[in-house]
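User: Please predict structures.

Assistant: First:
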Amino acid sequence: QVQLVESGGGLVQAGGSLRLSCAASGRTLYRYSMGWFRQAPGKEREFVASINYSGSITSYADSVKGRFTISRDNAKNTVYLQMNSLKPEDTAVYYCNARSPTLGDYWGQGAQVTVSS
């Protein structure tokens, strides 16, 4: 079992920055591929970014490419999402995900990000 807790969400003006953190307990995150997803009101959950086990490979949704950066610190069992140049359309609940084909799929409880225009 892996428990994931997101933090760092909040209210920010357009053009501002926030950094989300996802802290894990229960198992070391090194064994999992990690991702961030988001869900805006009335919309389906969508992929934002992912990072592989070692941090050597990252992937981003086109809508955030060049503005968001995903990273991980396996020693701290934490994954981060640095969000710059935020736009009102980035407003959503952001979820951390840990995924392993053998160990399972886990989600955090979500962190609200609100970007005002």
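Second:
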Amino acid sequence: VQLVESGGGSVQAGGSLRLSCQASAAVYYMGWFRQAPGKEREGVATENSDGTADYADSVKGRFTISKDSAKNILYLQMNSLKPEDTAMYYCAADWSRSLLRAGNARYWGQGTQVTVSS
């Protein structure tokens, strides 16, 4: 399975971006992770099997994960962006929810850069 992210860019604080992740095939669990320079990779948002999602506390209420299952596209709508959201954002997928949530997913995209200026 190949994952290709798009939609990153540079915005001012308070702005919005929508990231997309095109998967070459259907994978049951998908999510978004990010890594800022000098920091460890962290989970941003991951799907649950019941249609709900889990979010990092730092993005709750600002970011929304969604999926177009017919097209195998995962989205991340990011609103009210802050400078601390600046990072490389990665799409990840796995057949195991636990592996995905642990950051040990089998499939990863190349990442898309998000830069938020103050």
